[in-house]
Structure formats: structure tokens, C-alpha cells
Amino acid sequence: YEADTLEAWRVWLRDTPLALATRQAALAAWGFDLTPTGRLDVETRYALRAFQLHFRPESLTYAFDEDTTAILLALLTRYRPSALAELALPAPPPALPEPLRDTVSPP
Length: 107
Hints:
By secondary structure, the chain is mainly alpha-helical. It is built from five helices and no strands. The chain has helices spanning 3-15, 20-30, 42-55, 66-79, 81-85. Helix 1 packs across helix 4 (66-79). The chain is globular and about 35 Å long. The two termini are 14 Å apart. The mean pLDDT is 88.
């Protein structure tokens, strides 16, 4: 993902809170075997741990903080735009770069 895309999502998330179930659906869209429940259950914590270890190992929080969510949304923007569109998010931030083709490989 590009730094400007990540920053656009960070700014967007400051003003647009997302429900936990939506964040879980984003993790599932990235490829984790996760059912959005709206609860920070064991499955979600395992998926968060794996995601943060891979994409943000310098700051493990095991929580769905804004930075983790911004990274996840930036990755979906770049590599899986159709999965991002299915999340039914409020309007995405403006001026996002053109995505690559969708990929179906696991994270």
C-alpha cells in the first residue's frame, strides 16, 4: 500500500468510527477465517495478532486500534478493492490511488 493511502485512511478514521463488526468483516475480506460478531472474541484476537505481527510488528497491541484499521483498509484499497466495496463503509476518503487488480490469495 502507499503511504498517502494509509494517511488518507488514518484521517478518515479520526472522524468516522467503525463498528467492531465492520472491522472484523475487513479482516475477513483480507483473508482471515473470521465471522463478524461485533465482539472481541478469541478468533478476532488471533486474527489481529497475526495481522499485526505481519504488517505492524513494531507495535503489537492485540486491539483494533485506528492504525491497525488504517493499514487494513489501505491494503484492501490497493489489493482487494471489490472486497472493500462490499464492506458498505461510509464514503471513502477522496483521492485514493487506482487499485491493482483484485487478488484472492490469503494474506
